[in-house]
Design brief:
The complex is a heterodimer of chains A (about 110) and B (about 110). Chain A has about 110 residues and is mainly β. Chain A is about 0% helix and about 50% strand. Helices cover about 0% and strands about 50% of the residues of chain B. In chain B, the strands form two sheets. In chain B, strands 2, 4, 5, 6, 9, 10 and 11 form a seven-stranded mixed β-sheet that branches. In chain B, strands 1-3-8-7 form a four-stranded antiparallel β-sheet, with no helix packed on it. The chains are: A mainly beta (about 110), B mainly beta (about 110). Chains A and B meet through strand 4 and strand 5 of A and strand 5, strand 9 and strand 10 of B.
Chain lengths: ~110, ~110
Amino acid sequence: GENVEQHPSTLSVQEGDSAVIKCTYSDSASNYFPWYKQELGKRPQLIIDIRSNVGEKKDQRIAVTLNKTAKHFSLHITETQPEDSAVYFCAPSYNTDKLIFGTGTRLQVFP
Amino acid sequence: NAGVMQNPRHLVRRRGQEARLRCSPMKGHSHVYWYRQLPEEGLKFMVYLQKENIIDESGMPKERFSAEFPKEGPSILRIQQVVRGDSAAYFCASSPTGEGQPQHFGDGTRLSIL
């Protein structure tokens, strides 16, 4: 089955710094690449997504880059704020059918 | 526009009882997905349904678990004869048409087995 890994598993940054989380997947048929943010005890929230015909997408402080040849995509958060602290999951899929969630990255932003 | 509604938010059952979890998708959404999340882990896909049809149940345990999405009413995830290992957060997500549309999640049901 699909294997999805995230690195790092934990990430601590100072407020204002940038954070980068990488997601590696195994299914070459994947064509939809979302990132979800989950705060403690809350639901996963879609923060950004990209499709396989696009290499990069940006939304204010958040960006996603895709390298389909190497089968990885990355989440970039600039000017981090304490409210960015959460667990982030990548969840590649084929045609947005079942999402295969990664192992998660716990981001802590210190003021 | 109300989001995905799940109830109950918390459910406590004793071993051997039945658990029923409900999910009402967002208005206009006809595709429903169920995921399970164990503590400190990521979400695991369980089942994908459209109205009156199970599209993909490859993540469902073979026994005790079933799901439905009737023509009228919410989607139901049913767990019979619950065991301690069923304790988890169960999340439902919905999308308008499935293909090419992002999934939006409900607040989940936290199931605790005594």
